[in-house]
Amino acid sequence: MNVHYITASSFKALFFIYTGSLPPDERSVSEGGSPIGVILMSLTKEYTDNKKTAVKDLSLTFYKGQITALLGVNGAGKTTIISMLTGLYPPSSGTIIINGRDIHTDLAAIRMEMGVCPQYDVLFDTLTVREHLLFYGSVKAPLWTKKQLHQALEDVDLSHHQFKHVGALSGGMKRRLSIAISFIGNSKTVVLDEPTSGVDPCSRRRIWDILLKYRADCTLIFTTHHLDEAEVLSDRIAILQQGQLRCCGPPSYLKETYGQGYSLTLIKKSLTCEINVVILLSYITSNAGMTWSI
């Protein structure tokens, strides 16, 4: 096994990039006490129809008890990674290890312990919220109890709406229901593809609270376009571009390493106004200054 270390002493952060195959007794290596949940090993996905490489030689590690955000613009490869994690598409090369199991040989066992929230809700308008949880629970976790059902409804704040048909719910309520479904049966690995896409700010904040509540008991991976969302929720952020990993680490480490502060653009009316603005900014922070003037 070849392991490449990148250290940042100021944050005491240690990152791993794995190449080659891992023997079974080395699949539980931990970082700072956090055991490994998922490993992407030299993962590549090429679509033969349009000869496009969506993901190229990607190696990345996700840890149990942590939230990891896959951040990138459209076309960065986020949804393709989610599709390979869930077994929807097979990798062109490389492999994925989930809780010590190889996705090529143990996909059925992996899926029994995995929860998925797709980018678009897979719900039935004629069923109620409660019926959805009972249906998906009977498929994934037959021993799921009524107590766990009520707890799931309370966790996503849908107890008062459990007898409503899904067709009558708002977009935010539907997303919360989809997230509740993904956590059915105490999923050890939960994958969410843009869980806050298309919801209002209040629903978005509620979804944040749900993810933070469940993070301790699973490996939680989600995709997003929003840097602020990744920063608030994530223990680690992986930034993707054109199917490749550009950087990965805790939000504080990435800001310290790559951040350039804030830029404020103002349109002045006169020279006097310009002087007043500089004085004001200097009062707020001693590092502020004017870098361009027209």
Automatic annotation (TrEMBL):
Domain ABC transporter: 38-267
Short name of any one Pfam family annotated for the protein: ABC_tran
SMART domains, sorted: AAA
PROSITE patterns the UniProt entry points to: ABC_TRANSPORTER_1, ABC_TRANSPORTER_2
Superkingdom per UniProt: Eukaryota
GO molecular function, one term: ATP hydrolysis activity
Swiss-Prot/TrEMBL keywords: ATP-binding, Membrane, Nucleotide-binding, Repeat, Transmembrane, Transmembrane helix, Transport
Presence of the UniProt keyword Magnesium in the record: no
Chief place of localization: membrane
GO cellular component: a single term: membrane
Presence of keyword ATP-binding: yes
Locations listed in the record: Membrane
TM regions (residue ranges): none
Topology versus the membrane: Multi-pass membrane protein
Name of the featured protein: ABC transporter domain-containing protein
Source organism (scientific name): Chelydra serpentina (Snapping turtle)
